[in-house]
Amino acid sequence: MPQEQVPIEKRLKYGMAERLKLNQLPQWVHWIGLGGTGIVFLLAVFLFTAFKDVPVWVDWVPANEFTAPQYAERIYPDSVFRTRMNTWSNLVYICFGFYAVGLAIYDWKRKLPLHRGYLTFAPVQTFLFGLAGIYLCLGSGFFHASLSRYGQQCEVGGMYATMICLAAIAIGSWLPTIRVPRTRRLFPSWPVLAVLVIYGSVYFTYYKWDYSFSEISRYLTGILLLFAGVSLIQPGKYL
Q1: Cβ neighbours of residue 41 under 8 Å, at least 6 residues apart?
Q2: SS3 at position 177
Q3: Helix, strand, or coil (residue 76)
Q4: Lower Cβ count inside 10 Å, N or C end of the chain?
């Protein structure tokens, strides 16, 4: 059967399943995903080896987690990695982040239409999510390594950025285009969403101490649950 005669739902399902197979991605996507992770890993190994027993954080303002420990992990106060397992485990975030960046570039080069999926149509959303994952890794790793107040600000900023990206992806999948008032012209919504993601990420990082993370994250989680629930009732959207 010619492709144009195949129902769009079947083409969409096949196209996305084909895209998500790792062995069908070009090698350079894996170089970005694994290579970026490897570079950060080697940098972390170098820092840990060089400053394992050096009190590099002694002059930094400590976080409450340092003065009143809350993690089931030994604290090394005179080391560059004050909590080691919580620091090393953040490499998982950066692997997802670099792979998202690689997939975004891959989709941008192919320039697929909207019916192939919202993220293939608006790869900048995937790119920003990848940057947020990298930011979350570096910010959270910085916090657990230093147990400093500034490190905690960066960690929570990375959490905000990741959740804002997910909320923007959900909204964009349901509103991929915007109609200009009093005209029939349609424009993609991703530039507006991208600006809001960047602004929101910077804003909540800078003013972290003025807001309750649990309260803001509750609103962002509500957006995700809302769109997930509506998608179950009314399938066929582009996410």
Answers
A1: 91
A2: strand
A3: coil
A4: N
- Number of other CB atoms surrounding residue 211 within 10 Å: 14
Contacts of 199-205 spanning 24+ positions with Cβ under 8 A: 200/160, 200/161, 200/164, 201/132, 201/135, 201/157, 201/160, 201/161, 201/164, 204/156, 204/157, 204/160, 204/161, 204/164, 205/153, 205/154, 205/156, 205/157, 205/160, 205/161
**pTM score above 0.70:** yes
Six-digit token string for 161: 């950025």
Tell me the per-residue pLDDT of 118-157, one tens digit each, with 9 for 90 and over: 888 899 999 999 999 999 999 999 999 999 999 999 999 9
Q: Assign 111 to helix, strand or coil.
A: coil
- Give the domain ranges of the chain: 8-233
User: How far is 85 from 114, CA to CA, in rounded Å?
Assistant: 42
